[in-house]
Amino acid sequence: MGLNQHCDRDLITILFQDVDGLQVFKDGHWISIDPIEGAFVVNFGYLLEVISNGKLKAVEHRVVTNAKASRQSLVYTIFPEKEMIIKPATCLINEANPPHYRSFKVEDFNRHFFAVSNNNDEMMKFMLA
């Protein structure tokens, strides 16, 4: 079945994968992420991109089907409470590095995320200062 290309809405996603299927979009190409026994994949989400003021980018990824084996994944997400305000970390802001993202409540972010079906361009419009 797979999963269409998207960025995660959380801070961080920790993934354990047992077979091939995960791909990330880098430099205009889809790159397969081969599973490594005993290892986890860590994806940065939109909210961490905002907090890091763009130093860490949300990872655009997808899951493709594997015709040779069924795929099972264990996923753990780190996500703040809906009442929290997300904004660039103060320690990363100065005259040389102004805020690139606006402040917003997590619940407003979630509402927009689901309204635009995780459209990356629309999410960036929502998040940018």
UniProtKB/TrEMBL annotation:
Keyword Metal-binding: yes
PROSITE patterns: FE2OG_OXY
Coiled coil: none
Fe2OG dioxygenase domain ranges (all copies): 1-80
GO MF: L-ascorbic acid binding; metal ion binding; oxidoreductase activity
Protein origin, superkingdom: Eukaryota
Alphabetized UniProt keyword annotations: Iron, Metal-binding, Vitamin C
Alphabetized InterPro entries for the sequence: IPNS-like_FE2OG_OXY, IPNS-like_sf, Oxoglu/Fe-dep_dioxygenase_dom, Plant_2OG-oxidoreductases
Gene3D superfamilies to which the protein is assigned, alphabetical: B-lactam Antibiotic, Isopenicillin N Synthase, Chain (2.60.120.330)
Pfam families in alphabetical order: 2OG-FeII_Oxy (PF03171)
PANTHER family hit by this protein: OXOGLUTARATE/IRON-DEPENDENT DIOXYGENASE
Name of the protein in question: 2'-deoxymugineic-acid 2'-dioxygenase-like
Originating gene: LOC103492870
